[in-house]
Amino acid sequence: MPSLEEEISSRRTFAIISHPDAGKTTLTEKLLLYTGTIQSAGSVKGKASAKHAVSDWMDIEKARGISVTSSVLQFTYEGHCVNILDTPGHQDFSEDTYRTLMAADSAVMVIDGAKGVEAQTVKLFKVCALRGIPIFTFVNKLDHETRDPFDLMEEIENVLGIGTYPMNWPIGNGRTFRGVFDRASRHVLAFEGDGRANATKRVAEVEAELGDAALDELIGEENHRTLMDDIELLDGADHEFDLEAVRTGKLTPVFFGSALTNFGVEPFLRDFLRLSPAPGPHTDSLTGDPVEATDPDFSGFVFKIQANMDKNHRDRIAFLRICSGKFVRGMDAFHVQGDRKIKLATGTAMMADDRATVDEACAGDIVGLFDPGIFSIGDTLCKVGRRVQFAGIPTFAPEHFARIEQVDTLKRKQFVKGMEELAQEGAIQIFREYGAGMERVIVGVVGTLQFEVLEQRLKSEYHVEVYRSPLPYNLIRWIDEKDGEVDMRSLNLTRETLRVEDMRGGKLLLFTSPWNLNWAEEHNDGLHLSEFGNVTF
Q1: For the chain, which terminal residue's Cβ has fewer other Cβ atoms within 10 angstroms, N or C?
Q2: Is pLDDT of 380 > 50?
Q3: What is the residue-wise DSSP string for 386-429?
Q4: Residues comprising the binding site?
């Protein structure tokens, strides 16, 4: 039986990030295909079947072909236990991605070979860079017309400020795509498509050495000459491969391939598992000391909460990243923020909305815990008798606001419950006008698509239809009452300023412009306003 250290060293926990439509979800599915986790992959955009991405479970995800929540997927492959955190690709859900990256030990950055480094890629890369986590790059869609690979490498280095090292090199692109040259083995992996746009079977890879006359027939004489020139240039002028630089986030290994046609996915997976780090230490914010993954004492933090993943049971799942030790089903643990002992009666492993009971899990794993309403994002759980607290997960200031009220006033109970439970997931913030009730609420979001998700989920999960009225506010500030209670009604404010309170009674102001905010500060002696959230995109 493997030791705790051996189990942890076999773990790989990573997030996949990209700009929308770069192929992130497709790559995730093909990784699952190669590991035998699923038998066939249905592309999100495939028209030949009615399948949807296995990592997408909401109705809106299946209908639109986008990921709007972070899915947790686990599989084993060649002695490794792999946890994939499939993050939302849509920019309106950046904060969910940010929180998920807090639970990852490395990241895979998917780049569209035709479009290069895009805006959302830059934002998410910066989050990874702040944490110093290793980044592996997969340049996707080589079966389509793409930009020159040298230009793509230069753009990654100039825009993202990270060194690049191509692990393989493409031979042609689009209709002329013939495969890739693997720089480690010095072999060509030849591309053989099956004639379908959405291949669901493994693509054969034929090996042949560079300079072999047989390559002229396999990839064409011109492609062969170009390849030899490119490789000579790379070998002479490229960065040396430095694993330490990769592990510290200063150098990104770059792989070229096509997730849609399955080409290059398995070689990428093998190299990734070989080069990526096992779970490392997390800092105890109470002492500043590192908590090693191999520490036998259990600890972990909640980075995501999701309601109603099982529509039949109206459940609520808290996703826990285990930072040290081992989780055992039925164990007692100390809930630091709640300052009490709790029993972890059950744990679940996820495959989108499918789940299985977990008896044991160790550092690096993600476990879903049934949440009766006691957990919040950022909470720490640890061994009873030992107090460890990990740094809180960032909060985000909403940038768009709307008034939400139920169509059927007889469904007030369902409306209130739905709004409160969905707000606890962290994707929306709910407020009420000062002194008003919950008949209608004000919802704040980072991205406007979250309004549509809210409406769809209220309808499908709580059977409540709502009216939505956009509001002009785009700035929010807390009222700091450290010097005494503030009388909200007596404040001297412009007509474009709205007094609101959160569900805990906290007092806030909504503004339509910085001018209105400055007015409030200049015309109310002793009024102190503070930022809402600590991360902006």
Answers
A1: N
A2: yes
A3: ----BPPPP-B---EEEEEEESSGGGHHHHHHHHHHHHHTTS-E
A4: 18-25, 86-90, 140-143
